[in-house]
Amino acid sequence: MERLLVLVRHGQSEWNLKNLFTGWKDPDLTKQGVDEAVAAGKKLKEMGLTFDIAFTSVLTRAQHTEALILEQLGQTGLESIRDQALNERDYGDLTGLNKDDARKKWGDEQVHTWRRSYDVPPPGGESLKMTAERVLPYFEDRIMPVVMKGQRVLVTAHGNSLRALIMKLEGLTPEEILKRELGTGVPIVYRFNEDGSVASVKDLAD
């Protein structure tokens, strides 16, 4: 029985390009982001992968990425479940600000702490720890049981919601996961043992 999970961070968004804190705001993909999502679909097709079900956030950039991947796989009608549990981290008062402007306002060290600390949230927003506290229960209740039934699952989401999953799957410490860079539009393929442990992981950026 194949137990397969593919995680994909959405392609470059309009606000990624502008160097803005995005969070729960809803910009779409740039042309580069579209190209990244199409390339992700092509890589998965080259591996001979198709999916039984897909999960994504309620945000356009993740849904658009999913749609482009499935189009490449000839699976445009695949069941897709959308839930805000998979949304990006909420950046609170930083949302919509240019990252350089935020550094000028609060200082390099403070902004770095908000961005790269595991459990210190920005004003009015979520830390990575808080993001994990909503992502992981959803993953364990809704997604992992489907994987363990032998279905092939695609999850298209966001840098920090996926970091929360990767931290759990790979047994990483808070320090290790904060150093983990996730490329936009890059699939990460997990296969699982019968006991739910990770048998193999392949980052298709390699």
Low-pLDDT stretches are none
The total number of structural domains is: 1
What is the general shape? globular
Provide a count of the helices: 8
- Cα-atom radius of gyration: 17 Å
Give me the CATH fold name.
Rossmann fold
Count of strand segments: 6
Measured by DSSP, the beta-strand proportion falls in 15-25%
Strand order of the largest sheet: 3-2-4-1-5-6
Q: What structural category arises from helix and sheet content?
A: alpha/beta
Distance between the termini: 26 Å
Per CATH, which architecture?
A: 3-Layer(aba) Sandwich
Helices and strands, in order, run as EHHEHEHHHEHHEE
Assign a percent range to the helix content: 40-55%
Mean pLDDT: 96
Return the CATH class: Alpha Beta
- Main beta sheet: 6 strands, mixed
The CATH homologous superfamily is called Phosphoglycerate mutase-like
Describe the structure.
The protein is α/β, with parallel strands linked by helices and 206 residues long. It has one domain (4-203): Phosphoglycerate mutase-like (Rossmann fold). The protein is 43% helix and 15% strand. The chain contains eight helices and six strands. The protein has helices spanning 14-17, 31-46, 60-72, 99-106, 108-116, 128-148, 159-170, 174-178, and strands at residues 4-9, 53-56, 80-82, 152-157, 187-192, 198-203. The chain has a six-stranded mixed β-sheet with strand order 3-2-4-1-5-6, sandwiched between helices. Helix 3 links the parallel strand 2 (53-56) and strand 3. Helix 4 (99-106) crosses helix 5. The longest helix has 21 residues, at 128-148. It is globular and about 55 Å long. 36% of the residues are buried. The model has no long low-confidence stretch (mean pLDDT 96).
